[in-house]
Amino acid sequence: MAKSAYEYVKQFELADKLLPGCWIVVRVDGKGFTRFCEDHGFEKPNDERALALMDDAALAVMAAFPDVRLAFGESDEYSFVLAPSSKLYGRRSSKLVSLITSCFTGSYIRRWPERLPGTPLRSTPLFDGRAVCYPTLKILRDYLAWRQVDTHINNLYNTCFWALVKAGSSQTAAHERLKGTLSSHKNEMLFSEFGINYNHVPERFRKGSTLVRQLKRIKVERPDGTEGARERWETAVLHCDIIGDAFWRDNPHLTED
């Protein structure tokens, strides 16, 4: 291809290749979603339709980018994990962040009418993205544990807060009552005042969503009419503990290179 006199401008582009040999997490996070949720009348403290829509968008990312090993989502955020060996787009941060974020956002908008059929999309949902490198599996697991603990803390608070508001308290009064309270106090309040056993709140709300590819055995019909079976990878949406070792023992392929 012939060179142009203007090609010198390429020297101003900055190299943004992420560190080799590290786990990459691309985290997608909603911008201004408190207002967005209010504008669209999302149920409080959790709207299962909206959370399922987030899962749909994350599933689309997993389908478009096979290098994504695992995804974890809560509220208006999702974290996508790529293995240390991944060479996707030369590990360029700008490429990974922009493509995963745009895929997620576009899929969120595309699936909106299916998950919220009676709710017109009144404003454009916006998501920002960032890429962070984690040098060891332990640190990656600690990152994911941090996000799942955050899910529990936020959901416990919000469950208490909206129970108080729906019972007639003002939002200011509800915030004041919960200020400085421990988890044990919140659990006791929910049970004694509202008859809510927090352990019976759906795991989707307490533990977030974990997307992982699992090997499934499916039935197939052979040409001679007899039944057989074959295996294929399918992405599952789980609502489970990912802090302990059991999840990682059950999914050893996540940490294989």
UniProtKB/TrEMBL annotation:
Its cofactor is: Mg(2+)
**Pfam families noted in UniProt:** Thg1, Thg1C
Q: Which UniProt keywords apply?
A: GTP-binding, Magnesium, Metal-binding, Nucleotide-binding, Nucleotidyltransferase, Nucleus, Transferase, tRNA processing
Instruction: State whether keyword Ubl conjugation applies.
Output: no
Q: Which residues bind Mg(2+) 1?
A: D29, G30, D76
InterPro entries found in the cross-reference section: Thg1_C_dom (IPR025845), tRNAHis_GuaTrfase_cat (IPR024956), tRNAHis_GuaTrfase_Thg1 (IPR007537), tRNAHis_GuaTrfase_Thg1_sf (IPR038469)
Q: Name one GO biological process term.
A: tRNA modification
Q: For binding GTP, which residues are annotated in this chain's numbering?
A: S75, D76
Q: Where in the cell is it found?
A: Nucleus
Q: What is its main location?
A: nucleus
The UniProt annotation places Mg(2+) 2 binding at D29, D76
**Domain of life assignment:** Eukaryota
Show where the tRNAHis guanylyltransferase catalytic domain sits.
6-135
Molecular-function annotations in GO: GTP binding; magnesium ion binding; tRNA guanylyltransferase activity
Q: Which GO terms describe its cellular component?
A: nucleoplasm
* Cofactor binding mode and count: Binds 2 magnesium ions per subunit.
Family label: Belongs to the tRNA(His) guanylyltransferase family.
Tell me, what does this protein do in biology? Adds a GMP to the 5'-end of tRNA(His) after transcription and RNase P cleavage.
Protein known as: tRNA(His) guanylyltransferase
Organism of provenance: Prototheca wickerhamii
